[in-house]
């Protein structure tokens, strides 16, 4: 799974440069990235639907094939229209792989160990985002652009070869209920958990986008140090929290994580080096717990046959929150300044806690007359 999720992380840092060199116009450098993002969301939703009609392994291999084709195309083609199409193929492949692999991990695990397995999946999904961007830049500087894309094709090929060794049985009697994706999202408890997660991923996108503009570029309290420590803490707790959730359920670990995450973000605008380090560890740890707890909570709150739809909704929540944060908060920061803008972020953790609390109360409320 990690190899299949490496491709996009490997090429994202070099795509703007590739497009700028190919067209001679730096202003269009983000077009391919937009194409990737759009098709990632579309494919995540479509993959969730297709899981009710096709074997997960077939969809996984199809997604990896799309990634391989796109990577080979990027290695050899430098025309803008073709690169936009290739970007769409990368997004479609990545979105399919991300959604289907999430569902496959859940199906491989016994119910009593589902949190643990989803935690391990979180490790496989997080490591590429930490390692691959730096690897892509090193390949670019040491070998050249084409080497980055051929390496991406190779990682997809390795993932496909490993995937062919999986043996999954398709359970009988798991047809998707009427209503599909919309019915799943509009289930009150699922919607509350999903909305809470969007609030958290929104803050994650803001932190990644704007800490380099809030914090200094070097030293203990720098933006690189904050992002590194937060990434390590997120990876660790995303993995380790699964076992805790199996024992305690998702609510009991998630609500303290939301409180801690809000407190961590309240430290960040103070721009004190020691507090910045503490905030990085606490924010990353809270984010990791919430990521695992959200997926398990949505699975718990809907019909088992909608597991594929839950995986798609989880990935879309990440994309929606992360993708819209810069678009919405950049004008706010321009108006009030980055330090003042960061004081808004703890309120989003408070909103997430309110939504999760409402979901918990609706689940534990006694029926009328009892």
Description:
The chain is an all-alpha fold and 370 residues long. The protein folds into 2 domains: 6-163, MFS general substrate transporter like domains (Growth Hormone, Chain: A); 180-363, Up-down Bundle (Growth Hormone, Chain: A). 79% of the residues lie in helices and 0% in strands. It contains 15 helices and no strands. Helix 11 runs antiparallel to helix 15. It is globular and about 60 Å long. The termini are far apart. Residues 171-176 have low confidence and may be disordered.
Tally of DSSP helical segments: 15
- What is the CATH architecture descriptor of the largest domain? Up-down Bundle
Tally of structural domains: 2
Q: Strand share of the residues?
A: under 5%
* CATH topology value of the largest domain: Growth Hormone, Chain: A
H and E order:
HHHHHHHHHHHHHHH
Report the average pLDDT across residues: 84
Q: Whole-Å distance between the termini?
A: 48 Å
How many β-strand stretches? 0
User: Which secondary-structure class do the elements indicate?
Assistant: mainly alpha
CATH homologous superfamily classification of the largest domain = MFS general substrate transporter like domains
Which residue ranges are poorly predicted, with pLDDT under 50 across at least 5 consecutive positions?
Answer: 171-176
In percent, how helical is the residue content?
over 70%
Radius of gyration: 21 Å
What layout of secondary structure does this protein have?
Layout: H1 6-11, H2 15-23, H3 31-50, H4 56-76, H5 80-108, H6 114-142, H7 145-163, H8 180-185, H9 188-214, H10 223-248, H11 251-267, H12 273-300, H13 307-336, H14 338-342, H15 345-364
Helix pairs in contact: 3-5, 3-13, 4-5, 4-7, 5-6, 5-13, 6-7, 6-10, 6-12, 9-10, 9-12, 9-13, 9-15, 10-12, 11-12, 11-15, 12-13
């Amino acid at each position: 799974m990690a190899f299949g999720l490496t491709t996009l992380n490997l090429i994202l840092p070099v795509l703007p440069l590739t497009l700028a060199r190919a067209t001679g116009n730096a202003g269009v450098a983000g077009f391919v990235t937009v194409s990737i993002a759009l098709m990632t969301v579309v494919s995540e939703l479509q993959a969730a639907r297709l899981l009710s009609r096709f074997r997960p392994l077939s969809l996984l291999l199809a997604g990896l094939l799309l990634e391989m084709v796109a990577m080979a195309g990027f290695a050899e083609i430098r025309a803008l229209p073709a690169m936009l199409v290739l970007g769409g193929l990368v997004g479609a492949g990545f979105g399919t792989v991300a959604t289907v692999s999430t569902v496959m991990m859940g199906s491989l695990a016994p119910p009593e160990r589902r949190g643990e397995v989803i935690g391990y999946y979180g490790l496989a999904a997080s490591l590429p985002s930490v390692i691959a961007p730096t690897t892509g830049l090193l390949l670019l500087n040491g070998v050249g652009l084409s080497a980055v894309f051929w390496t991406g094709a190779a990682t997809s090929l390795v993932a496909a070869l490993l995937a062919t060794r999986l043996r999954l049985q398709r359970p009988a009697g798991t047809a998707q209920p009427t209503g599909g994706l919309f019915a799943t999202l509009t289930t009150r408890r699922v919607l509350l958990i999903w909305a809470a997660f969007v609030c958290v991923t929104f803050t994650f996108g803001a932190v990644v986008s704007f800490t380099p503009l809030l914090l200094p570029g070097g030293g203990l309290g720098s933006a690189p140090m904050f992002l590194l420590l937060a990434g390590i803490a997120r990876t660790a707790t995303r993995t380790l929290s699964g076992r805790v959730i199996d024992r305690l359920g998702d609510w009991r670990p998630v609500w303290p994580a939301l409180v801690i995450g809000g407190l961590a973000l309240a430290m960040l605008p103070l721009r004190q080096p020691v507090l910045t380090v503490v905030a990085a560890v606490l924010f990353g740890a809270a984010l990791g717990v919430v990521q695992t707890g959200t997926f398990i909570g949505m699975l718990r709150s809907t019909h088992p046959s909608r597991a594929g739809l839950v995986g798609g909704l989880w990935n879309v929540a990440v994309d929606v929150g992360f993708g819209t944060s810069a678009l919405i908060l950049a004008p706010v920061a321009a108006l009030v300044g980055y330090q003042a803008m960061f004081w808004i972020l703890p309120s989003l953790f408070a909103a997430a806690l309110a939504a999760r609390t409402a979901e918990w109360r609706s689940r534990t409320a006694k029926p009328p007359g009892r």
